[in-house]
Design brief:
- By secondary structure, the protein is of the alpha/beta class.
- It has two domains: 1-387 and 420-480, Trimethylamine methyltransferase-like (TIM Barrel, Alpha-Beta Barrel); 388-414, no CATH class.
- It contains 16 helices and 20 strands.
- The chain has helices at residues 16-33, 40-48, 63-72, 123-135, 156-167, 182-193, 216-227, 248-269, 295-311, 329-344, 364-382, 390-399, 409-414, 430-435, 441-455, 462-479, and strands spanning 6-7, 35-37, 52-53, 58-60, 76-80, 86-91, 100-103, 109-111, 118-120, 141-143, 172-174, 202-206, 213-214, 232-240, 275-285, 290-292, 349-353, 355-356, 361-362, 384-385.
- The strands form five sheets. Strands 16-15-14-12-11-10-7-17 form an eight-stranded mixed β-sheet. It has a four-stranded mixed β-sheet with strand order 3-4-2-13.
- Strand 3 and strand 4 form a beta hairpin.
- Helix 5 packs parallel to helix 6.
- The radius of gyration is 24 Å and the shape is globular.
Length: 480
C-alpha cells in the first residue's frame, strides 16, 4: 500500500533557543578553554588558519573559524556496498527515519551462543560474526567486531580487516587498534577491492581523547584517510563524572565542542572532506569503576543528533550496547531504549550493536535479539498511511455492526504485511504454548541464533579474497 502522507511519530528534545545556546556555549569552550592538539602538523594547520596558541599545546579556536568549517563541510554522505551499490545516505534532507545500524565493536572476548561463556576473540569468531551480520536484515553495516587474539599481535588489525572484507559485501566501519597499522589496513583493502574512494564502502572510525584532546594518532589517521579521499566517523566517548561534567548539560556542551574542533581540523586538512560526527555519552560508575548508559545518555544522544541536523551534518550515535551480563533483560532494555529513540529521533548511523559486559564481550545472541528490536522500532517510526480512507470506510460499511473482517477482501490482501511477524518468537496462545511443552523465549532465541550461525555463508569471492589477503599480509610481515 502506497501512501503520500503518514501518521508518523517523532522525538525532539531541543527547542530553537536551546540549540542556539548549545552552539554558543560550545564555541565559548573552544575559544576560551581550547583544545590540546598533540600532532605538530595538525597544530600548525590550526594556527595558520587563525587559531591562537596556548601553553602545553593548547589551541584556542575562534568562532569564525568554526563557522567556516560548518559552511564548507558536506551536508550528506553516501555509503555503498562492496560491489559499489548505493546502500544509504546520511545527513541533511534525508526523508523519513534515517537511523542505520551496524553489528560489532572491538571486543576482546566472544560470548558463546549457548552457554554465555567468554573466550578470547579469534579469527574464526570474527568470520562467523561478520557473516551473521551479513545475514541479519536490520544491520546496514558491519563494524570491526573483535580484536583478533590468535595471531601475531602486530598483524591482528590486518587479519580482522581481511576477515571482514572477505565475509560480507555490506559496508564496513573499520576500527584499528594499532595506529601504526592503519595505513597497512587501507592498503590491504585497496589491494583487494581497488580504489576505495571510487567505491565508498569502507568508513574508518576515530576517537579523540575526552576531555578536549585531539591526540596525535587520531590526527594522523584523519590525514591518511582524507588524503585517500575517504569518508570517516569522528566520534567522542564521554563518561559523565570522569571525563565530562557530571551534569548532562555540561557533558553535551563539552562533547559538542570536541566534535566542532574535529570538524574544523578536518576541513582545514581538506575543504569539503566528508565526515560523520557523533558521541557515545556514557556515565562513570564510582562504585564499580566502569562505564554504563543511563536514560540521560539517550537524551544526550538525541540532542547531539539534533545539533548535527541543525548544522546540516551527517551523524553517528550510540548503540545502547555494552550493558548487561550477556543477552539478558539488562541488555534487552538498553537495546530497546536506544534503538527506538534512535529511530524516532534524528540519529544517523548506529554502528556498534551486540556487545555487553562493559563492551568487552560480543554476544551473537544479543545481536540476533537486536535485529528483532530494530525491525520493530523501524516499523513504529515509519508510521502508517493516512491518505484517502474511502476504501476503509467502504469496508466498514460492508461489514456493518456485529460482523467480522476475517474473510474480507482487504484483510486477505493485506494481512501478510499488516503487522510484524517474528521469525524468533511466534505468537502463541496459552494452549499452543502448552502444546509445545511450555517453551522459554530465551531458549527459542538461542536456538535461532545457533541455526543462523550454522547456515550463514560467505560471498562468492571469499576464497579469492582470502588468498590475496593472506599473501599481502605475509608481505607486510616480511617487511616488518
Amino acid at each position: 500500500m502506497t501512501s503520500k502522507t503518514a501518521l508518523r511519530p517523532h522525538i525532539a528534545v531541543l527547542n530553537e533557543s536551546q540549540i542556539a545556546q548549545l552552539h554558543e556555549h560550545s564555541l565559548r569552550v573552544l575559544s576560551h578553554v581550547g583544545v590540546r592538539v598533540d600532532a605538530d602538523r595538525a597544530r600548525r594547520l590550526l594556527l595558520r588558519a587563525g587559531a591562537r596558541a596556548g601553553e602545553g599545546r593548547r589551541v584556542f579556536l575562534p568562532p569564525e573559524l568554526v563557522e567556516w568549517a560548518l559552511r564548507v563541510a558536506p551536508s550528506t554522505v553516501d555509503v555503498h556496498d562492496r560491489w559499489g551499490k548505493h546502500v544509504f545516505r546520511l545527513g541533511k534532507d534525508v526523508p523519513g527515519p534515517q537511523a542505520r545500524f551496524g553489528i560489532g565493536v572491538t571486543c576482546l572476548y566472544y560470548q558463546d551462543a549457548q552457554s554465555d561463556a567468554v573466550t578470547p576473540f579469534t579469527r574464526q569468531h570474527v568470520r562467523e560474526m561478520v557473516r551473521l551480520g551479513g545475514a541479519l536484515p536490520s544491520f546496514d553495516v558491519i563494524s570491526t567486531v573483535g580484536v583478533v587474539q590468535d595471531v601475531d599481535p602486530a598483524l591482528c588489525d590486518l587479519y580482522a580487516a581481511l576477515e571482514m572484507v572477505a565475509n560480507t559485501t555490506k559496508p564496513l566501519v573499520v576500527l584499528v587498534a594499532d595506529e601504526a597499522a592503519f595505513p597497512h589496513v587501507l592498503d590491504l583493502l585497496e589491494h583487494l577491492c581497488g580504489d576505495l574512494a571510487a567505491r565508498p564502502f569502507v568508513v574508518p572510525y576515530f576517537n579523540p581523547i575526552t576531555p578536549l584532546v585531539i591526540n596525535a594518532g587520531t590526527a594522523d589517521k584523519m590525514w591518511w584517510t582524507i588524503e585517500r579521499g575517504l569518508l570517516f566517523i569522528y566520534s567522542n566517548y564521554g563518561m559523565a563524572g570522569a571525563t565530562t561534567p557530571i551534569t548532562p548539560a555540561g557533558t553535551l556542551v563539552l562533547l559538542t565542542a570536541e566534535l566542532l574542533a574535529g570538524l574544523t581540523l578536518s576541513q582545514l586538512m581538506k575543504e569539503g572532506a566528508p565526515v560523520i560526527l557523533g558521541s557515545l555519552p556514557a556515565y562513570f560508575d564510582m562504585r564499580g569503576m566502569g562505564s554504563f548508559y543511563d536514560a540521560h545518555s539517550y537524551l544526550i544522544n538525541l540532542a547531539c543528533a539534533e545539533m548535527m541536523a541543525h548544522y546540516g551534518l551527517p551523524h553517528a550515535g550510540t548503540s545502547g550496547s555494552g550493558i548487561g551480563w550477556g543477552p539478558d533483560p539488562i541488555a534487552w532494555g538498553h537495546q530497546w531504549m536506544n534503538h527506538l529513540t534512535s529511530c524516532l529521533g534524528k540519529v544517523g548511523l548506529v554502528p556498534f550493536v551486540g556487545d555487553n559486559l562493559g563492551s568487552k564481550a560480543f554476544s551473537p545472541v544479543l545481536a540476533v535479539y537486536a535485529n528483532e528490536a530494530i525491525a520493530q522500532a523501524r516499523r513504529l517510526a515509519q508510521g502508517f498511511a493516512w491518505d484517502d480512507i474511502t476504501a476503509d470506510l467502504d469496508e466498514i460499511g460492508r461489514v456493518g455492526p456485529g460482523g467480522n473482517y476475517l474473510t474480507s477482501e482487504m484483510t486477505l490482501d493485506l494481512f501478510r504485511e499488516a503487522y510484524y511477524q517474528s521469525e524468533v518468537f511466534p505468537s502463541l496462545t496459552l494452549e499452543a504454548w502448552q502444546a509445545r511443552g511450555c517453551p522459554r523465549a530465551m531458549d527459542a532465541l538461542r536456538r535461532h541464533t545457533q541455526q543462523l550461525l550454522a547456515h550463514v555463508s560467505a560471498p562468492a569471492d571469499h576464497v579469492e579474497l582470502m588468498a590475496k589477503g593472506e599473501e599481502f599480509i605475509q608481505g607486510v610481515r616480511r617487511e616488518a
